[in-house]
Amino acid sequence: MTSEMLPAFIESSNVERKQSLSEDQEKSQKPRLGEGFEPISKRQMKKLIKQKQWEEQRELRKQKRKEKRKRKQLERQCQLESNSDGNDRKRIRRDVVHSTLRLIIDCSFDSLMVLKDIKKLHKQIQRCYAENRRALHPVQFYLTSHGGQLKKNMDENDKGWVNWKDIYIKPEHYSEFIKKEDLIYLTSDSPNVLKELDESKAYVIGGLVDHNHHKGLTYKQASDHGIDHAQLPLGNFVKMNSRKVLAINHVFEIILEYLETRDWQEAFFTILPQRKGAVPTDKACEGSSHDKKSARVEDGLDSDSSEEENNRNELELPHEEEKQDKENSNESTVNSRPH
């Protein structure tokens, strides 16, 4: 080998050595069976495929969510347009005429309720606030003796209550800032029945959700404080399957409805829930008299049918006697024959 060919030979051998080294490295990097390589199961393969599909469809899902939001927005807009004709209970604020009647929810029974009932009271107060805000004749709404568990629950679950409008939320008792002669406590235990609402008065609703555990408490409190008391004229217009004790928001809404219609019966039947089984008292009386008449008619029918049955028995009796006589005569003739 000549000296000229020697560098070319050395270079080619170096290239071959490098190629062989790279091949060895590739082989060493590839996993071998039996050297830590575990084949993928069908379940794992399915999971990998699903994950891949989920990632691929991410943009599609995003687009679908956008379309859904747009569709809901359009539906809400259409609903608002359809309700703009005034048939809905939400009314245009420019038609509102504020009433001078003061309606107070007395929250001084905080210590008598468990947390579950406090939460129910909070929801009923929210309902009263919402209904008063959209009423045609909103009242002067007061929330008194506000504190304790109720305030804590409102702070935790309804922080926006501090921004409520058209409501007076006070920690004091109502007797501290309203004259006694202006107060009328609404309680179902009172013997006095309201005939109409005096808008110069302040009507108090007991803020107590007790499931009938403290019967007559609001009536006793009103009597002890020398405050006038009365009950809504429910019994004059409505016959109910359940007891006459109503939820706080129902009493509140009935008063709002009466201020608008000046008709107790319409107010009761607009607000009372169907589960109360309320029917007008005149229909209830008609129903009871109808039941009595039907009972009398049924008794008359029963007596008539019994008389007919007796007559039928009397008519059938001679025929049976004749048959019996014939049978007896036949037996006698058979027995009298010679054997």
Automatic annotation (TrEMBL):
Q: Where is this region: Disordered?
A: 1-87, 279-339
Which residues catalyse the reaction? D210
Basic and acidic residues compositional bias, start-end: 14-35, 283-299, 309-329
* Gene3D superfamilies in the cross-refs: 3.40.1280.30
Composition-biased stretches, type Polar residues, lie in 330-339
Its GO CC terms?
Answer: cytosol; nucleoplasm
The UniProt record lists the SAM-dependent MTase TRM10-type domain at 88-279
GO BP term (any one): tRNA N1-guanine methylation
Q: Does the keyword S-adenosyl-L-methionine apply?
A: yes
Entry's InterPro entries?
MT_TRM10-typ, MT_TRM10-typ_sf, TRM10/TRM10A, tRNA_m1G_MeTrfase_euk
Keywords of this entry: Methyltransferase, S-adenosyl-L-methionine, Transferase
One of the record's GO molecular function terms? tRNA (guanosine(9)-N1)-methyltransferase activity
- Comp. bias (Basic residues): 61-73
Provide the E.C. number(s) assigned to this enzyme. 2.1.1.221
Q: What class of enzyme is it?
A: transferase
Q: CDD domains of this UniProt entry?
A: Trm10euk_A
Reactions catalysed = guanosine(9) in tRNA + S-adenosyl-L-methionine = N(1)-methylguanosine(9) in tRNA + S-adenosyl-L-homocysteine + H(+)
Q: How does it assemble?
A: Interacts with tRNA.
Q: What does this protein do?
A: S-adenosyl-L-methionine-dependent guanine N(1)-methyltransferase that catalyzes the formation of N(1)-methylguanine at position 9 (m1G9) in tRNAs. Probably not able to catalyze formation of N(1)-methyladenine at position 9 (m1A9) in tRNAs.
Name of the protein this chain belongs to: tRNA methyltransferase 10 homolog A
Q: Which organism is it from?
A: Neomonachus schauinslandi (Hawaiian monk seal)
